[in-house]
Amino acid sequence: MNADGRTPKGDDLEELIALYAVGALAPAESHALEARLAAAGPEELLRRLDDEPAGAPTALHIARASEAVWEALPYPGLHKRLLHLDCASGRYTALVRMAPGASYPAHDHAGVEECLVLEGDLHVGGEVLRAGDYQRALAGSHHVEQTTEGGCLVLLVGPLPV
After folding, report:
1. What average pLDDT score do residues 113-121 get?
2. Residue environment code for 127-157, b if the CB has 16+ CB neighbours within 10 A, otherwise e
3. To the nearest whole percent, how much of the chain has pLDDT over 90?
4. Which terminus, N or C, of the chain has the lesser number of Cβ atoms within 10 Å?
């Protein structure tokens, strides 16, 4: 069952993988998905995840705020709302909300990560970013710990975890 009380349909592979990626599945669901992925061949997985033919225009996708699923991250005061998971390019788009006083630990980047502050304050090294401020970290770069005094909401676009 998801954090919002919904149970994903067994055939909704993309949603299950997205929930798995952010740690939102119950242990039994995670084990079932791992077994399903191990049993399926790579061609079947790619066919199921690629619901648009090559070169086809991208269909419109709307993610309603009223239906949002916010997942707790393993750091106090941080929650993530996964907006899009692009398995083909290995990238995700998400909103991250940091409660007042929360911090995100220092980390390295496997790929380019983009961050747009939508609300509040985000402290990165000696810089304070506010609504409308943008930062981009290149692949191989190191991010120092990021903190917030009053809380913040940021839009992240980055590489999927290894």
Report:
1. 96
2. eebeeebebebeeeeebeebbbeebbbbbeb
3. 43
4. C
pTM: 0.64
> What is the secondary structure of the chain as a DSSP string?
--TTS----TT-HHHHHHHHHTT-S-HHHHHHHHHHHHHS-HHHHHHHH--S-TTPPPPP----GGG---EE-SSTTEEEEEEEEETTTTEEEEEEEE-TT-EE--EE-SS-EEEEEEEEEEEETTEEEETT-EEEE-TT-EEPPEE-SS-EEEEEEEEPP-
pLDDT tens for residues 50-84? 544 454 545 788 888 888 889 999 999 999 999 98
- Per-residue pLDDT, averaged over 107-136, amounts to 94
